[in-house]
Design goal:
Layout: H1 7-24, H2 38-41, H3 46-58, H4 61-81, H5 93-159
């Protein structure tokens, strides 16, 4: 019986992690050149790669934390730290403009990334359907063979 922390089990675990990295490609990306799935073989344009990256960053907890830190710093500097007239007093009109511009730019980029994900899902669905049909045909063939074997066994039993 193998121990959990044995060298063989650790080696097996690390080799599977390496194979997953190789399969997923650079930084765990789903776009790897070696994948056989049609959705992953397509060549991405600069805009598609940018939309994917911006969506990945904009939808992360790191971005949300950074964003809240930026907002609180902006308000703190303009409200408490600047003794002279601040560059963006209390209603924070400049901050509102910055946030509106960010939303106006980020929303269409996120929609582009979602549209690309929808396209990948459609391709994935078609690919899965083809695989499922092939598996169904193979299962039907195996069932026919089993019926033939049963019939042969029944005939052999009747001859005895």
């Amino acid at each position: 019986m193998k121990k959990r922390g044995s060298k063989k089990s650790v080696a097996r675990f690390t080799s599977s992690k390496k194979s997953n990295k190789k399969r997923l490609g650079k930084k765990g990306s789903i776009h790897s050149s070696g994948s056989k799935h049609p959705a992953f073989r397509e060549k991405l344009t600069l805009g598609q790669r940018a939309a994917d990256q911006i969506t990945e960053i904009g939808g992360s907890w790191i971005f949300i934390g950074f964003f809240f830190t930026f907002l609180f710093a902006w308000m703190g500097i303009n409200t408490f730290l600047i003794k002279r007239p601040s560059f963006d007093p209390y209603p924070y009109i400049l901050l509102n403009l910055v946030l509106s511009c960010l939303a106006a730019v980020q929303a269409p980029i996120i929609l582009m990334a979602q549209n690309r994900q929808t396209q990948r899902d459609r391709i994935d669905e078609r690919y899965d359907h083809i695989v499922n049909r092939k598996a169904e045909r193979e299962i039907q063939g195996v069932q026919k063979q089993l019926i033939a074997i049963k019939h042969t066994l029944w005939e052999m039993k009747q001859k005895k």
